[in-house]
Amino acid sequence: MKFIEKLKFNEDGLIPAIVQEESTGRVVMMAWMNKASLISTIETGKTHFWSRSRQKYWMKGESSGHTQQVKSIAFDCDGDTLLIQAEQLGAACHEGYKSCFFCTVNQVGDFDITEERLVNPDEIYNQ
Predict the structure, then answer these.
(1) Closest by alpha carbon to 68, among 37, 98, 47, 52?
(2) Considering its fold, how many domains does the chain have in total?
(3) pTM for the full model?
(4) pLDDT of residue 126
(5) Three-class secondary structure assignment of the chain
(6) 12-16, 42-46, 54-58: which range is least confident on average?
(7) What is the mean pLDDT of residues 32-59?
(8) Is residue 85 part of a domain?
(9) Other Cβ atoms closer than 10 A to 55
(10) What is the CATH number for 58?
């Protein structure tokens, strides 16, 4: 995996990973990866990340079942951001939305929820 040498991980050994739904082009989430989670993503074809808040390695969908099947992985010209195209199966957001970007700033400086909630997160995470 020689391409990893081209990547610039931050001082914590992390790199931002933007996940885009392949079929629509919509960005569904952004999370952090370390080398181990990137390698696991490549080896399994499912996204794996590093949680900064929990200080824990995790696979997307390990508790919800809402996984991401990786279609391609690219990196930007500076080597400091990953772009993962995936098939999103279920909600990408822990709040139960297809995308983590479900809030849109409106003209009065407030925000609107711009998509339907797919699932109630209490039904997924509090079983």
Answers:
(1) 47
(2) 1
(3) 0.90
(4) 56
(5) CHHHHHCCCCCCCCEEEEEEECCCCCEEEEEEECHHHHHHHHHHCECEEEECCCCEEEECCCCCCCCEEEEEEEECCCCCCEEEEEEECCCCCCCCECCCCCEEECCCCCEEECCCECCCHHHHHCC
(6) 54-58
(7) 96
(8) yes
(9) 7
(10) 3.10.20.810
Sign (positive or negative) of CA dihedral 48, 52, 53, 56: positive
Query: Hey, what are 126's tokens?
Result: 């509090």
Please name the residue that has the structure tokens 């809030």: 103
Q: Does a structural domain hold residue 115?
A: no
Q: Is residue 124 part of a domain?
A: no
Host domain of residue 29: 2-91
Residue 127, pLDDT score: 47
